[in-house]
Amino acid sequence: MKNLQNIVLAIMLATLLFGCKQKDENEYGNELGKTETKADPINVEGVIAVFGSFPLEFVSNGKLMASQQAELYFTKNQIVKEINVKNGDWVKVGAVLASLENELDLINLKQAEFQLESAKIDLDDKVITHSGGQVGGGRTGEKALNHFALSSGFKSAELNLQKAKIDYESTTLKAPFSGRVADLETKVMNLPKGGDPFCRLLNDKNFEVVFPILESEIGRLKVGQAVSMRPYVEDSVFYTGKIIEINPIVDENGLVVVKAIVPNTDGKLIQGMNVKVFIKDQVEDCLIVPKEAVVLRNNRQVVFTFSEGVAMWNYVETVLENSVSYSVTKEKDGMQEIFAGDTVITIGNLNLAHEAEVKFRMIK
Question: Is the pTM of this model over 0.70?
Answer without folding.
Answer: no
